[in-house]
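Hi, here's the filled form for the chain we discussed.

Project: internal
Contact: R.S.
Residues: 444
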Amino acid sequence: MKRTFERRAVAAVVALCCAAPVWAQDPGLIPEDERYALHGQSTYVWQRKPAFASPYEGENSLQGKKAKSYSFTATVDLGLRLWEGAEFHVNGEGARGQAFSGLHGLGGLTNGELAKTAGADMVYYRARTFLRQTWGLGGGREAVEGDMNQLAGGQDKRRVVLTVGTVSMLDIFDSLESAHDPRTQFLNWSFLTHGSFDYAADSRGYTSGAALEYIDDGWAVRAGRFMMPKESNGLPLDTRLGKHYGDQIEFEKQYQAGNRPGTARIIGFRNKTRMADFGDAIAAGRAAGAAPELDTVRREHAKVGVGIGFDQSVTDDVNAFMRASWSDGKTETYAFTEIDRAVSAGVVVKGTQWSRPYDTVGAAVAVNALSRTHRGYLAAGGIGPFLGDGALNYGVEQIAETYYSWRPFKYFWLTGDAQYIRNPGYNRDRGPAKVFSVRLHTQF
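And the returned structure, exactly as it came back:
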């Protein structure tokens, strides 16, 4: 049954791409404002993991035996222009998949398309519902290309933007050009955003709230408050935004380095909710003569963190990126993944030199780490939302990923991807793990 579904999914993706039109018109032209638009996407990812050294395994380990994984998502976006500067979007989405080891055993998980709610049955849900209001303040006009969650038209270079509703936090914050979209770029979670950015989201990656942005010629500032899940990595959201919330503020500045454009971003976040402190869990476990548990020590806490990121054009066909982030690491991971400190960097090259200007090849590395109390909790036998080998010979998790994306049509991508992971789950006793992937993506 699963193989039949996979064959049908691949056939549907190929059929959509064959029906897609050729390349768009000159993006420098400012199109007329669209009144409404319908966009859609589908993405299929198949992954294979060979067996690796695994002398022991715990409840949340990445299992050492060879395994396969897959994911399939399909999204439809309906966008309407309500009045001048106002767009309303609603997304319907369906997803299914099978993760390695139940999506456990890594800080940098291998497929950004696999949500924590992934299962063998196709599940349909409302992903986004939001209003975006833009107030133009002059400074000249620039084109906006029609895309998912974006109507074609023009906008002032200097503007204020208010977004209210249900979105992904990464729709607004930390939008590095070369490393933010697992549907067309790097697959590993370490490259979606800052590893230690425990951004507000339900277990599918969406949240509700509001963000306000001021964008000017060469710089921008944005801030937002969004709902945290009611429980760690849970699906229902806590609607008490005055009590439990995820706050973030980001500053963005464009610059020139060696006559090449670049963009720097710095983001700070503060999450406030009822969560467990690793130190409290360790102390309670010692007192009871048992492995520490998070469930018994949850109370009101705040988690803070900061990240800095750079996009840098190297040539017309080469773009580099870098991120570095830190969180206090005192409390449990609540919405993203178990990373407390992270550094990542990479490069993406267009295929112009080999007469494939719409193809891309990417290579990146990431180093993920845990706070001292977080690693102490795991070493004592504690179980986190993603980690728990039962013991821990700590070492930083090191990830390398490379991909080649072949794009024969504007609306179709076929990608081959390879990942190499040392110290999976921060454990020197296990690994290294290797993961090989094939991804098919189409959108219209």
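Let me know if anything looks off before we file it.
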